[in-house]
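From the methods appendix. Each design record in this collection lists the tokenized structure first, followed by the designed amino acid sequence. Records were kept in a plain field format so they could be parsed without special tools. The example shown here is representative of the layout used throughout.

RECORD:
FOLD TOKENS (277 positions):
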């Protein structure tokens, strides 16, 4: 799978620093790492609605205070939204029903994140969850290796819940480099028995501070072997952080993507990536 097209599909005014998205019934559910809202964008009508995920939710929350929602996944009717865990106030998971807009639960994942750090031999300064998948039985959480140790890890978690009954496996990955900078996971989605992931090369050794963006990749991992099938660079300039399945056929697979502009500007770019099978 080598041929691809990446096109800017549309822009959404009112969302900044988009970090993850889910596509369902011609609507996009989007999170931003500076924001305390879940955004719901209807593609047909271009209507944008905001649903608070935290008390006193706002946009462009100061960096030291923000919950840093970086990962979103869907199972059944519910969405699950994860803080990155890169600081002590970024350890929450919010479960929300997008139909009723009801927050089902807000869970403190501090203990889970500490166990993951210990199990994956990750120092706190190298811990940064940026992707999540849930299939109803198993969670896959993706540590972005943009710290000094380049710890790109997928944690496979079999759990009755994520607070005190779980078993963890981990797989380490060395992703491609651009100009000597190794790419790191920024999001992922499950399609049948394959994990498709995004990874960005950003010239920084900090999970907290941003750096120069050198490009982004799409990649694929077989869920049975947890080995990489392929990686392909798809841009030299964009920090692509959100990945959602759009359409899947025998000939091609289409994804919707968003990018993180790392600014206070409330504008989100939505791209369509087409891979020819």
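DESIGN:
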């Amino acid at each position: 799978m080598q041929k691809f097209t990446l096109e800017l599909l549309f822009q959404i005014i009112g969302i900044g620093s988009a970090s993850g998205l889910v596509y369902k019934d011609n609507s996009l559910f989007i999170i931003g790492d500076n924001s305390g809202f879940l955004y719901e964008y209807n593609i047909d009508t271009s209507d944008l609605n905001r649903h608070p995920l935290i008390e006193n939710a706002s946009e462009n929350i100061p960096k030291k205070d923000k919950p840093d929602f970086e990962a979103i996944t869907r199972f059944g009717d519910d969405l699950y939204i994860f803080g990155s865990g890169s600081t002590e106030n970024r350890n929450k998971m919010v479960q929300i029903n997008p139909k009723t807009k009801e927050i089902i639960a807000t869970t403190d994942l501090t203990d889970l994140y500490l166990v993951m750090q210990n199990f994956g031999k990750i120092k706190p300064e190298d811990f940064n969850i940026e992707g999540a998948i849930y299939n109803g039985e198993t969670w896959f959480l993706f540590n972005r290796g943009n710290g000094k140790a380049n710890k790109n890890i997928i944690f496979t978690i079999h759990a009755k819940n994520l607070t005190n009954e779980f078993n963890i496996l981990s797989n380490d990955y060395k992703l491609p480099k651009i100009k000597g900078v190794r790419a790191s996971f920024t999001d992922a989605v499950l399609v049948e028995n394959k994990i498709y992931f995004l990874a960005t090369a950003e010239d920084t050794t900090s999970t907290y501070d941003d750096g120069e963006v050198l490009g982004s990749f799409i990649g694929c991992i077989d869920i049975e072997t947890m080995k990489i099938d392929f990686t392909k660079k798809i841009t030299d300039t964009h920090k692509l952080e959100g990945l959602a399945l759009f359409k899947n056929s025998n000939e091609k697979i289409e994804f919707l993507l968003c990018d993180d502009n790392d600014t206070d500007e409330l504008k989100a770019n939505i791209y369509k990536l087409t891979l020819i099978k």
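APPENDIX NOTE: The chain has one helix and 22 strands.
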